[in-house]
Amino acid sequence: MDINKYFARVGYKGSYPPADIDTLSAIMHHHIRAIPFENLSVHCGEPISLNIESIFQKLVMKQRGGWCSEQNHLLYWVLNTIGYRVVMLAAHVYQPHLDEYNPFATHLVLKVTLDSKVYIVDVGYGSSSQIWQPLELTSGMDQLQIPGIFRLSECNGIWFLDKIRRKQMVSDGLFSESELLDKSSYRKIHCFSLQEKTIDYFLESCRFHQTSPKSAFANKSVCSLQVPDGVRTLVGWTYTETKYNYRMGVDLVELKTLQNNEVEEVLKEKFGIILESPLVVANKPGTYTI
Fold it and tell me: Which residue spans adopt a coiled-coil conformation according to this UniProt entry (predicted)?
């Protein structure tokens, strides 16, 4: 694997020594704008592997995207390669329809230590809950980013990540009650401990999300990409563009229903994805918000 091929993939042209916060932020910034969060392999009949060589081939060489355990495993390799102190952590994703955190820690995030400071890095959450910059691991501090305000809070060794969100303005009233919209102003995202994990820890959840009828990712085809002014998302046949802070304190959300023959063209034009296998678009009942 060639680190320079990764940098070419994400469009990063800066230097990478030294391993400092500015370089970390720049690499993360380029990554989330180049590599989509997506689960399309599940709906193309392609098995997902967490082997780093397989991930590199898929996300870098084939210019595809992936979900958290692919995206953050790739970034873990990159940061390790260029000299960062980085470890994997496992997070419990908040389930709003149950008003509880998933009892299983299925989401991979990274902890990066720089001198006396610790940061949480995550390029694999997608949609409007995706952080755009590393989060300083400080309890109770509001951290303003373009998507909104993120806040980490610690209680008894468990860290909770929340987002304070702007109001949403939906351009087409026909979609104002779409199940994809999260109208809450305060969103719980996930929680985690600082216990270090290895990639093997995530093998079972990777299998679950590919095969279980209880998994939202097995029931819905999803793709999202961060762009300079917001985020693009495709869930099933519904394509969405969210523009952050379109008006002061307001995000503009534009939704469109695609026809079957439009989906792969939108994937190519809006997400830079060209599929090798036929996609079976899916949007079975279940909770997934943008």
Answer: none
Q: Is 223 a catalytic residue?
A: no
The pLDDT of residue 183 = 86
For residue 276, is it within any domain?
no
The mean pLDDT value of the chain amounts to 97
d(CA 8, CA 19): 19
Q: Within its chain, how far is the Cα of 168 from the centroid?
A: 20
The active-site residue, picked from 68, 191, 206, 223, is: 68
Percentage of residues in the chain having pLDDT higher than 70: 100
Alpha-carbon gap, residue 140 to 159, rounded angstroms: 10
**Residue 226 covered by a domain:** no
Give the model confidence (pLDDT) of 139-149 as tens digits. Answer: 999 999 999 99
Q: Is 182 a catalytic residue?
A: no
Q: How far is CA 120 from CA 67, 113, 194, 196, 204, in A?
A: 17, 9, 10, 13, 23
Catalytically annotated residue among 30, 31, 107, 209: 107
242 in a structural domain: no
Residue 188: give the domain boundaries: 3-166+184-214
Is 31 contained in some domain? yes
pLDDT at 16: 86
Residue 27 phi/psi, 5-degree rounding, is -65, -45
- By three-state DSSP, how is residue 196 classified? coil
Q: Residues 10, 145, 190, CA angle at the centre, nearest 5°?
A: 85
**111, 118 contact by CB (below 8 A):** yes
Number of structural domains found in the chain: 1
pTM for the whole thing? 0.97
Q: Which of 30, 43, 92, 122 is labelled catalytic?
A: 122
Integer Cα distance of 93 and 244 in angstroms: 23
User: 248-259: per-residue pLDDT in tens?
Assistant: 999 999 999 999
CATH of the domain at 130: 3.30.2140.20
